[in-house]
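[step 3/7] inverse_fold.run input=structure_tokens len=541
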């Protein structure tokens, strides 16, 4: 009976999710790949906020964060640290990437690199490399949603079927609705996430411990090791190795990487204007407060469901839910967790499809005019590949996340340095990339992460940067004849200051009169209407 109630609620919400995606695009059948992949560049501040917040709150937050809180304790706080710092970096980087892509009609990170270095094959190479490091993240979401489906069904649905349901629902959803549908569903997801976590933050301590006071007293008295770095296990032989150096280097690496992560860039490029990105960079850290709840409840589970090991620790929070709440409540919490998988998984799959449709398959003449169709086919293939990986090579959720970030971090010199420094050559950037990726793979897959107590990805990034600079200065400058204004990104903050200065001089001398392609103005703004929206943008929903 319990399984019937909870799975019925879950099924109804999944059908509603697909329906909401269809509703989001009901009047937007045109627009090609730009409409499908970046929402026609017309999403307002609210949709961008929920979409980018949705990327930060995934199945990892319900399962992996609780699992790491259960296994190690304090080290899991790196998630809050890097995301908050990453939003600060994004205040500058987001508008810079948005204006660059808008100026040159680009729809993704591979487009940006291909345009910057003037070589389409660099975009194709980046798409292949990014796909390799994004597939584990899709696998992470499939694994997380499969665990949720199996758990809330009280075991009636096996993990294998749970994985397939995750793949089928998300693939169908993203092929039909694109980025705009993901933004709409993010609203529903955020309402459920805030509501369910707020409820659990009160319910679990009261139900199991008679309040936070007794819970925290027990943690301090019996599990003090979980409350300080390096957490449970220590730094010694056989320990976690997640000490202060690891915490600082992982937070730094991820804070820099998250702003150029392909899914983050997709969110940037979907914005109606750069100001929406700046406002979101200010307010998004507030969403991270919710992450403390599964982390703390994961440690609370140490006293209620002891003995969970390996991937089973990811069930720490849901074991508390299933053991104490009625089936209807379990179903609703399961829906919130499932949507926390669907939204980011949809964006990851969409980004992979866009990268291949735009940068790889478009190199084939017969596919050039059908980029959107090619991208949608790639979405299905990528989802199926991640599903196969889920069956064949399961792993714990956080480890998959770390591999993705450490690999994607190796694009940082080519993207951030390349967009502000003309001298960086393709040979230099690619040489550094090869060394960085090779170092990451060598360290991670031989079990040397952390290495010397620090994140393996930042060691690889340091080697990447050194090689890129050495090769750049050892080779001739690129013969690209384009002016700097066509190659480099303009400073987003300088552009904002210039725009404000113009507006303060004379109301008639506004950004409406500025040609964004006229370098004599010295500022990088998009022609705007009276309400500040770009003239070419579709109206926001």
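[step 3/7] decode complete -> sequence:
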């Amino acid at each position: 009976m319990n399984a019937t109630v909870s799975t019925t609620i879950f099924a109804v919400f999944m059908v509603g999710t697909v329906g909401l995606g269809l509703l989001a695009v009901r009047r937007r059948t045109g627009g090609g790949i730009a409409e499908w992949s970046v929402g026609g560049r017309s999403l307002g501040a609210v949709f961008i906020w929920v979409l980018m917040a949705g990327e930060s709150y995934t199945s990892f937050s319900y399962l992996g964060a609780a699992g790491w809180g259960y296994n190690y304790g304090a080290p899991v706080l790196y998630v809050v640290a890097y995301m908050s710092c990453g939003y600060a970096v994004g205040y500058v980087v987001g508008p810079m990437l948005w204006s660059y892509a808008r100026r040159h009609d680009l729809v993704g990170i591979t487009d940006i690199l291909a345009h910057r270095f003037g070589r389409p094959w660099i975009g194709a190479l980046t798409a292949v490399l990014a796909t390799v490091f994004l597939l584990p993240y899709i696998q992470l979401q499939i694994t997380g949603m499969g665990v949720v489906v199996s758990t809330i069904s009280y075991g009636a649905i096996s993990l294998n079927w749970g994985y397939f349901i995750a793949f089928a629902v998300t693939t169908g959803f993203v092929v039909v609705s694109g980025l705009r549908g993901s933004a709409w569903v993010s609203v529903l997801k955020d309402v459920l996430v805030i509501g369910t976590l707020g409820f659990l933050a009160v319910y679990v301590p009261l139900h199991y411990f008679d309040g936070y006071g007794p819970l925290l007293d027990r943690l301090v008295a019996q599990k003090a090791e979980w409350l300080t770095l390096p957490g449970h296990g220590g730094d010694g032989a056989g320990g976690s190795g997640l000490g202060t150096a690891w915490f600082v280097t992982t937070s730094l690496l991820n804070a820099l990487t998250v702003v150029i992560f392909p899914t983050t860039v997709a969110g940037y490029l979907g914005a109606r204007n750069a100001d929406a990105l700046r406002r979101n960079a200010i307010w998004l850290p507030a969403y991270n407060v919710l992450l403390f709840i599964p982390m703390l409840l994961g440690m609370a589970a140490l006293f209620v469901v002891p003995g969970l090991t390996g991937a089973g620790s990811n069930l720490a929070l849901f074991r508390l839910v299933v053991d104490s709440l009625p089936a209807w409540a379990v179903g609703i919490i399961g829906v919130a967790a499932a949507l926390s998988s669907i939204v980011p998984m949809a964006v990851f799959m969409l980004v992979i499809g866009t990268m291949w449709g735009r940068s790889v398959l478009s190199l084939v003449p017969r596919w050039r005019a059908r980029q959107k169709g090619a991208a949608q086919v790639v979405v299905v293939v990528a989802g199926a590949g991640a599903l196969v990986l889920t069956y064949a090579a399961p792993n714990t959720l956080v480890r998959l996340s770390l591999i993705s970030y450490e690999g994607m971090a190796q694009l940082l010199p080519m993207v951030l340095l390349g967009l502000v420094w003309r001298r960086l050559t393709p040979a230099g950037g690619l040489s550094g990339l090869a060394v960085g990726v090779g170092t990451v793979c060598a360290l991670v897959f031989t079990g040397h992460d952390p290495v010397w107590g620090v994140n393996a990805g930042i060691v690889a990034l340091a080697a990447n940067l050194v090689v890129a600079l050495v090769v750049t200065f050892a080779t001739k400058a690129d013969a690209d004849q384009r002016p700097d204004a066509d190659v480099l990104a303009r400073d987003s903050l300088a552009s904002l200051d210039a725009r404000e200065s113009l507006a303060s001089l004379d109301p008639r001398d506004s950004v409406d009169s500025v040609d964004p392609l006229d370098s004599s103005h010295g500022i990088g703004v998009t022609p705007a209407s009276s309400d500040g929206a770009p003239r070419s943008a579709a109206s926001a929903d």
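[step 4/7] annotate
Confidence is low (pLDDT under 50) at residues 500-541.
The chain has 23 helices and no strands.
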